[in-house]
Structure formats: C-alpha cells, structure tokens
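Database export, one record per block. Field names are fixed; values are copied verbatim from the stored entry.
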Amino acid sequence: MRVIVTGTGDAFSNTRFGSSALIETPEGFVAIDCPSACLAMYREASRISGIEIDPGRIHDVLMTHLHVDHAGGVETLAFYRRYKAPDQGRPGLWAAPAVMDRMWERLAPSMDGRQFGDEPQSTLDDYFEPGVLAIEGRTRVANLEVRVRWTVHAVPTVGMLISDGTSTLGWSGDTEFVPEHAQWLSEADLVIHECGESAKHATWAELSTLPLELQQRMRLIHVPDEVTLPEGPMVPLKDGEVLEVGRSVSKTA
C-alpha cells in the first residue's frame, strides 16, 4: 500500500497543511480527510513526492471528523469536481454516523444554492456519493476494507484501520491518549498517530509509554509548529512524504 502524506499540521499550523493523506488504489486516490486549501496541498504534495496528484482522480474521501483542519477543503473539492472536472463523476464521501449526520448541516450554507428565502437547489448527493462507515463491522471503499473506532475528542471523531488485503494502515484520528485505542491500532503494519501538546490531543510523553515495538511502527502527525519532539522511535512525518506500508519503508521523493 502506497500512502502519500499530504499534510501533517495541526489547526494552528502556518507552515504545513492539515493532517491528511492519500492512498493509491486501482480505482484512484482515496483521501483521508480534506483540509482547507486542498488544491494547493495536492499540488505541493505532487511537487515533493514526484507523484502526480490530480484532484479529479480522488475516488473517495474518508472523513474522521468535521474540524476545519480536517474538513475545510470538502467544499472546494466538491466544487472542483462539479465545475472543473465534471467528467470524473462524483467522488464517494464516507464518515461514521454521527459525523455524516451533520455533514450537510456544515456544508449547506455555502453549497445548497439557496438565496434569501428560496428553496435549496442542491443536496449533498449532487456533489458526492455519500456513504456511512460502519462502527461495528467493515466497510468496502474502492479496493480497501475500512474499520473505524470512536476516539475521545471535542467532537465525534474516528480512528481507522485501512487494509488492501496485503497491508494495513492505522490512522489515529484526533484523540486524547487512550491506551485501548492505541492497542486497537496496533494491528496495523504502520500507525500514523496524532501528537499534540494541548487538551483533547495525545502528547509525546503519553505516547512514549506505549510498548517499544508499537512505537517503532508509529509515525507522528498533528505536531504543533513550535514543538520539537525528542528523538526516539516515533518519527514525525513531513508533508509530501511517501510511505510504503508493509515494507517498513518511509521515503521522501
């Protein structure tokens, strides 16, 4: 499984894009979250990685939660696909039930075409093919199998285990430090875990209490700009980095 890390920043980063990634599949890219300035983010990731990222080839988007540093680019991607790449069709948009329940509530004020007292002209289905990620069970997205688990955060948020049948990627989602969540993610060949230094986020000190074997399979994102982490087995990722999950190889082209 090849993963392009498109962003590693937190909500207040002014040097990196919001934490997110793309997974390459035969059907196209599957995005994990879609932060603000997503088109610039994909262009920059293309430049750094050497992999051409066409937003028209994003087949599906997996959403962890609705905070702007994770969901702020959904509107941009929707309009891009509708007006700039209409021949590419509607991408899938996937989220767990409590997240999907409020998706259109978040997007509708700028996307439903309503003016003053008029009736709405569009719905979420006009832009995306929405799907619900099963909390108990497995959901097929492109050629991937996705499992999700609720985290502990300020709003409903999920972590993910994503498998292509050969290798598995663990994605923590935004979360406080929850040992049971880390244990659930430990099934993955590679775990990408958030690492903040404030409320509602896991800290490096907390993550460093996990078993060494798990730390060695863990890479960190969502680290605040002003924080320099100690050296250790948990290595921070960079925007544009390419990961070959299952080969224990991390590289930046």
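Remark 1: Residues 2-251 form a domain with the Metallo-beta-lactamase; Chain A fold (CATH 3.60.15.10).
Remark 2: The chain is about 20% helix and 25% strand.
End of record.
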